[in-house]
């Protein structure tokens, strides 16, 4: 004897948020029932395991049927098949596009290709996120990337409008898309200590300052000549960064810069001696990073370079976060006083981002 | 003659990808009506085409307009090969033919394909221009309104109730035509859908003609059914109640319950004056709940010329006890009344009414349930001419097979005659709450009909209502509306069966039975104690597989026993809940190859007017056996415990307070002494069918045989719903009055496979019972976020789709209510009890305080609390009746009692002027129809072109417009409910009947998630299509929704399944009770949002 068919369809689609989460997390129906039972719902509602199983199956089916619509969330609002109140639609979408930080950390900066998809089972094993959930998250990344790649205009806003996501989530997706597009290396052992949120913050900085879109709408109205987009870094800006090299190649400028910074710092920090000793090294590191960014390969290594060339030396000298802040502020500002240094605008655009990235990335 | 149908194809969206290479579609649309087809241009390479076509105009007869649907086909253009069909939309034009319903159809419709389901949407505009038709020999019946609602629709008033209308049409089922062997499943499904659409159109038109003939203008309680007889054909039949309805002006729209009831004046007297006759009451005998066994065995089996047929002995359920005494009859008045109403009704062939709730004063007495069943053998259609007819156009059956529809007609005629004679035997001249159904398995067909025998007030049935007034008044008995319908309609001295009668516990003037079974809804004015609950009796009976006549005979032999057992179960369960009446009783018997399933559902209630129910007493056959004795004692204890628990659960407090309050001397045997003294009877001993046994003094449930033990166990396994939940199968739950706006309609289907080949009846019963119980449990679980809530109109249908399969399908609505207010029960009670003028009521509880000074302080404090509660409500009554109802006061008897002061003469005058007005209005509307449509055309334009700023000509179009979804921005929320209303809202307009039939088939069952996935998406699609059609008519809700057919056939081995679903309901516009104007589309969404929150689980 067995229940051959069992369906329940409401005019307003009934969805249990707890079950939805279990479904998103990739639990099988039976596992989900187990989890729900452990949650004590049986006693609470005076019901039986059969009822719970039937309910869970029903909901899973509903979610599966909705999944197609969730792939293009705008459709969810004007489709006719499911009558779902708008606020509930928003929850469905937001949750569907939510991701595990552990998972995203693994794929961040990787090419969102079939090859990566094949590695998902390894990632699943490593992060204990179920394979099913990994696949959903990966496909979400890919889907967003595919749609946004073709669009002009601000990245975050595009994501928000096309996928009806909250601002926070849209920003996270912008980061993921940006990292995937530029293939930033984030997987190296030295970068392991950084969280997704650290990277997301840096991505935000890069998007807002270093992309074409960051400069604002092009002044000339021939939009077609210059694609207004912020998925890619501003090529002209990267080119201009080469000019900064003068800060380290010109011996006088370097010494002058050092003395200006040291004068400002003296007596204000315990790590002054280390700062003075390392100034040239550190400055070379930062300027070299800037100068090399025209190479795609070096763009990819941007974060690892930051860590190796700057963060690690400072950390071995036991700088505090406050030291770091102090040093970078004066390092940036002192360059303005150098009379022979003419690239103030590029310098500010570069150092503004570097500063906030390093602040974020420098964990005590 | 003529009408002009115009259609415009605006746009499409979400179309499927038809060209793999480009991932796009080159879509165009064919618009077909009758034999005329138009095409739009091809819109290349888009999934969201904008055709914006010209107006396609069809000039057609209105007869065709009624029969034919507008058929819209979306295709993908292919240069080299045949164009691929994407899907179709059928639009029923009927709502546009009635001037009072919708004037334009405009909106997004799901494009439906029988193989792939919904594939995108299409935006369509449809209008009709009708020209005046004065031809008296016309075949069309445009303008007759149809309602599925089984009561007088909310914004109408019944000027006259004409009576029963029925019709059936027959055709060959395309699925069984020879052509089906060579055509694709899609073509076959579409042929079937189209044919059924045509047949329903024709059926509706024919019924409309009958209504016009009777002088009516509407059909209420329209019930249309399909009989898929397989090879022998397809029958579409319908029944309904013809009425003349007057539209109420919007100001008075909500107050259908202000209907003047002219005969309640003496009611209060009746209640307050103790009845002397009461002393002669037969209570001394103790309560005996003898089941009233088959009274009228219908004529013995007979052979019709062509068809084998067995008439099954039928039961009349009245639930009467035996041994009634010959009390004093109400006297000559009653006889006079009867004579008069009889003449009014006797003219009709079948004095049947499909209504289940009535205008106040319509129902005088309810006698009991009458039902009739008959088993028929379906015959093949011997008609070679048919096989070649490719046309889907209806065949003229009168010329081809002259006897075919007649045969079916004759079958139903037979059954109806039987019902009529049963009703007569109960002393009733009419049958209300009447319905018909069939169950078909292979070539055997069980036809069933049932209803409630009743005596009706002739006022509503007389021509013109002109003679309302003094005559009526004289003949009518002064029976208060809160108990009058329970009074026995038959002659006590000459009772059709032995029954236990007592004087009415409410008015003490007339006799009432100890138990009352009916198929109608609980009259709103009825006095009820506590809450009601769903009561189900379930039964499985195995049967040998057989063919033809042998099979039919076997089935018909089983039927009376099944009915009997179902009845016994119902009675026992009723007593277990200490209730004394059943409403909405529906007994379904389904036939399968090797078993019969019986399911009886009803809502149990404690009617204050009826005597309290006795308990159930258990006895062993061998009193000497000690262990047995012990066993019996434990069972008895369990039963008593359950009864006590149920009493608490349903708040059934024996109405002692009431009786003392009324101050009437209670007939000598106190109620208390009767409790636990009554008897149930043993189950299926044949001798019980003998009526003489009903005279036995004491009856006990003997448990020496295993069947009886099983019965008791099954009694006790019914688990009550969890706290906060109630359920019933009637419109609303007796005892709950303060509904809030949370509404969740749902459909659930379960199919159970019996794997064990050697099942016994008992085992089968248990499985079936568990199946039903578990289904209910899963509803309670799913809807737990709505607590406190009530499952209303729980409509359960069972079927045996295949051997070893049991299918249960449920459609119901969960409605939230305000728990706090229900606790103000004392207030309700007092109001229910007193039925005098408001002023009187106010004094009444005060008097009561004085009289019952001996009662505890607690009691009196309760009562004084009542007074303060009552005052504001009563004050409101004068101005705003709506307020009273929403304030949680039960269907106020004071409303109808106000009627007492109405002058009948003026009432009659008003009626006649109303009729005049109606005629005038109808005329002007007809003449003005062209103008109207022009106005809506401009409206339609503004809708399609999104010119929101365009000024609107008048309120009517505004209401239309506000409910329409603009562009692709948002979807109108459409609520659905099987009830005739939505709590917290007011229906301001009926837009027409929704009657849709869909077929879905798949050849990739596994890929669609198995049979559950397949059906789940199909039901969701059906909901979506219903909602889309309602929204396109400008509506925002469907009331009286029902799923009348859900036939699922599966073949998992072949990875195939097919399902047919038929749904119906009334499309309406409703507004929040407080609003005057229709809510604008934005607020509307917001509003339903908030209720959607209630609806969804968290």
Can you walk through the features of this model?
The complex is a heterodimer of chains A (364) and B (1098). Chain A is mainly alpha-helical and 364 residues long. Chain A has three domains: 17-97, no CATH class; 101-186, no CATH class; 235-361, Globin-like (Orthogonal Bundle), CATH 1.10.490. Helices cover 67% and strands 2% of the residues of chain A. Chain A contains 21 helices and one strand. Chain A has helices at 17-24, 29-38, 41-44, 49-70, 73-78, 86-97, 101-107, 114-118, 120-127, 131-149, 155-163, 167-182, 196-210, 235-241, 246-249, 251-265, 272-292, 296-300, 302-316, 321-337, 344-361; one strand at 2-10. Chain A is elongated. With 1098 residues, chain B is an alpha+beta fold. Chain B is 31% helix and 28% strand. Chain B is built from 26 helices and 34 strands. In chain B, strands 13, 14, 15, 16, 17 and 18 form a six-stranded antiparallel β-sheet that branches. Chain B has a four-stranded antiparallel β-sheet with strand order 4-1-8-7. Chain B has a four-stranded antiparallel β-sheet with strand order 3-2-5-6. In chain B, helix 17 (825-833) crosses helix 19 (857-879) and helix 18 (838-851) packs antiparallel against helix 19 (857-879). The radius of gyration of chain B is 29 Å and the shape is globular. At the A-B interface, strand 1, helix 4, helix 5 and helix 6 of A face strand 28, helix 15, strand 31, helix 25 and helix 26 of B. Strand 1 (2-10) of chain A pairs antiparallel with strand 28 of chain B, so a sheet runs across the interface. Chain A: Pfam families: FIBP. Chain A: This is Fibroblast growth factor (acidic) intracellular binding protein a. Chain A: GO terms for molecular function: fibroblast growth factor binding. Chain A: InterPro entries: FIBP.
